[in-house]
């Protein structure tokens, strides 16, 4: 049987290779470092963590914990290595990054079913099963090839992430529903609009200009900005009116409380079918997270907003998953090619590991001629795959795992637990792990 080839020996690629070997198949893992490096990696080790050393919360019944717990139950190599490399980090799974990378590298090098090759992959193999897991800093030649295979308008090089707020925390006595000029795709009032008067707008611009920014991870993060996705603080620096003529323009909107057009507006766009969360349209930015919480709570109607995600802009190569991928992470147009890790359109270390595990397992199933066994939708892993393959491709943005991606509880349970968010989260986690255990009992 021909070896499965995996491009990229990062978090996703190593987990994928391990899962393929675990299924009893041979594979080749191609990693370009140290022959050719990236702007963020510093070593020749596999699975190098390029920035923080945290794999996020280990608090039971948090979404980040659930994803890790599922990976542990599925015999993830990288979660096992993280456990060995663990250092004290409060409620988070924090690791000694060198030890972690070394543990993974040794495990991969010593696995007789995995052949490790060092060198840049410049194309996707023309035949056989392949997994592309070259990450957010995929090298140029391969990125050109991916653009050829997926269509250049479906490969992105920058993330411009807008903050997301929880719907329940938006003050609907201030905010109003409307689409500009009453135009909506389905005739509804698609947006929630946060109306500003002049004084509120001036105060907001002052706060944006004074806010602390995050230092860039790598030099490319800073320049050049794409004009189409400028950070809001850069717009504010260009002139006090620029935001009002950009993402905060009020045209085509009338505030029902005053009967007039507001001075400026922040539009909130629905994130999911349940309308459980909304993103702040065009509000990508470089401000520190604590600053974002402070400054964005000056927006009328968001005084008590709960943020599910903060805004960011950084170098990130990723495909438009929903336009291209099946829930098994196969290219719909060419199912022998899988995508995993950040390039598949997820965000974060553990999310990258999770999609590596999914792609590795499904690639092995394909090679063995077995029926594909997608993960249950109720699990965090299944929900990540559902998001990557099924979100709205018109506004696609990579996502971390949050409860928002998991299916809602049934009506009766929601009603029973409506005043107890912790209990609702615990129930979502219980249901996820129960479904995962059923899946494992059938497929091991
Ligand atoms: C600067 C930066 C900081 C980040 N900080 C965090 C953070 O703090 N926390 C967090 O959760 N997430 C962070 N992320 C996001 C993301 O979780 C990590 O990038 C994560 O490592 C992604 O895993 P991956 O397996 O998809 O890619 P990687 O871990 O980057 O692995 C991809 C591998 O492919 C190799 N490669 C690239 N091109 C080729 C090629 N043509 N041929 C062969 N090999 C190739 C690379 O050398 C690399 O080893 C950050 C991303 C960036 C860019």
3D architecture notes:
- α2 runs parallel beside α13 and α3 (77-84) packs across α4 (97-109).
- Helices cover 33% and strands 16% of the residues.
- The protein is built from 13 helices and 16 strands.
- The chain is globular, with a radius of gyration of 22 Å.
- The strands form four sheets. Strands 10-11-12-13-9-14 form a six-stranded antiparallel β-sheet. It has a five-stranded parallel β-sheet with strand order 6-2-1-7-16, with helices on one face. The chain has a three-stranded antiparallel β-sheet with strand order 3-5-4.
- It is of the alpha/beta class and 444 residues long.
- The structure holds flavin-adenine dinucleotide.
- Flavin-adenine dinucleotide binds at residues 7-13, 30-33, 38, 40-41, 50-52, 120-121, 133-139, 142, 217-218, 315, 341-343, 348-349, 352.
Helix content: 25-40%
* Main sheet summary: 6 strands, antiparallel
Counted by DSSP, the helix tally is: 13
What is the molecular shape?
globular
Portion of residues in beta strands equals 15-25%
As residue ranges, the low-confidence spans are: 220-224
N- to C-terminal distance: 23 Å
The chain-level mean pLDDT equals: 93
Strand order of the largest sheet: 10-11-12-13-9-14
């Amino acid at each position: 049987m021909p070896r499965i080839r995996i491009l990229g020996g990062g978090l996703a690629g190593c987990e994928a290779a391990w899962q393929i070997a675990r299924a009893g198949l041979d594979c080749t893992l191609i990693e370009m470092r140290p022959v050719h490096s990236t702007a963020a990696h510093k070593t020749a080790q596999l699975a190098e963590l390029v920035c923080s050393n945290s794999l996020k919360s280990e608090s039971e019944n948090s979404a980040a914990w659930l994803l890790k717990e599922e990976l542990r139950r599925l015999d993830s190599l990288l979660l096992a290595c993280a456990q060995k490399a663990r250092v004290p980090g409060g409620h988070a799974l924090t690791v000694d990054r060198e030890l972690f990378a070394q543990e993974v590298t040794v495990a991969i090098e010593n696995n007789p079913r995995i052949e490790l090759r060092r060198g840049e992959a410049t194309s996707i193999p023309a035949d056989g099963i392949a997994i592309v897991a070259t990450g957010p800093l995929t090298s140029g030649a391969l990125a050109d090839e991916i653009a050829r295979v997926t269509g250049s308008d479906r490969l992105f090089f920058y993330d411009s992430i807008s903050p997301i707020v929880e719907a329940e925390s938006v003050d609907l006595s201030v905010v109003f529903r409307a689409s500009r000029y009453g135009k909506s795709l389905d005739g509804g009032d698609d947006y929630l609009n946060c109306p500003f008067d002049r004084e509120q707008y001036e105060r907001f611009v002052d706060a944006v200009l004074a806010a602390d920014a995050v230092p860039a991870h790598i030099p490319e993060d800073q320049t050049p900005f794409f004009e189409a996705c400028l950070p809001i603080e850069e717009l504010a620096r260009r002139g006090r009116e620029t935001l009002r003529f950009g993402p905060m323009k009020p045209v085509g909107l009338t505030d029902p409380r005053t009967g007039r057009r507001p001075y400026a507006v922040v539009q909130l766009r629905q994130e999911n079918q349940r309308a459980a969360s909304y993103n702040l349209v065009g509000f990508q930015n470089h401000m520190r997270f604590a600053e974002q919480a402070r400054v964005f709570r000056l927006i009328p109607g968001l005084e008590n907003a709960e943020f599910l995600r903060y805004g960011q802009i950084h170098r990130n190569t990723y495909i438009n998953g929903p336009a291209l991928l099946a829930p098994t992470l196969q290219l719909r147009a060419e199912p022998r090619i899988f995508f995993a890790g950040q390039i598949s359109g997820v965000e974060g270390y553990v999310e990258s590991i999770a999609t590596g595990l999914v792609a590795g397992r499904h690639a092995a199933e394909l090679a063995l001629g077995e029926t594909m066994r997608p993960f249950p939708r109720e699990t965090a892993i299944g929900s990540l795959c559902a998001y990557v393959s099924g979100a709205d491709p018109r506004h696609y943005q990579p996502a971390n795992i949050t409860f928002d991606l998991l299916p809602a509880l049934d009506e009766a349970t929601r009603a029973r637990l409506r005043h107890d968010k912790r209990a609702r989260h615990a129930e979502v986690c219980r249901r996820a792990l129960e479904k995962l255990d059923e899946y494992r009992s059938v497929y091991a």
